[in-house]
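Reply to dn_fold:

You asked what the input looked like. This is it:
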Amino acid sequence: MSSERTTGSIPRTDPPPAADETTMLRSFVDFYRATIQRQCAGLTVQQLRTPHPPSTMTLAGMLKHLAYVEDVWFSVRLRGNDPAPPWDTVDWSADRDWDWNSALTDTPEQLTALFDDAVAASERILDEVVAGGLDQEVARRPAHAGHGGAVTLRWILVHMVEEYSRHAGHADLLREALDGATDL
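and this is what came back:
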């Protein structure tokens, strides 16, 4: 039995049962990234914008949110870069859920490109910094109180597994409600 399952053109490889810590963490992040992509694949604009009440969460919003999360944790926090477009011009004080809300006017192609570009940028950064080890600290510490003290690359990768796996569960429910698809 192959460890790679494919839905459409989106491959997803199971994380290895044994590997070094860096490989294991990156494999789980990659697995859940692909899970989100598979949940959104082949849907219409309307389907991507459809919430499952009482929640207002949509798959469109989820894709844009996760693109934002990629940029914040890998580029802004880990490397110390300024936010990439479109995040660099957002007035977060006017709409703290801008990523979720603004996605409702984006096309599937725009959302997919934004997500794919953010993941590719994160992967380039990881490839550049991973030799420094998982204990390296971020260049910019998060400002909010829940993240006092040092944040390391290890913490970011564990957090990304948590972020993606939580949203993959949401995506499972949203996709099944849309068209009955399961086990993506």
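Helices lie at 21-40, 45-48, 59-78, 98-102, 108-129, 153-179.
Hope that clears it up.
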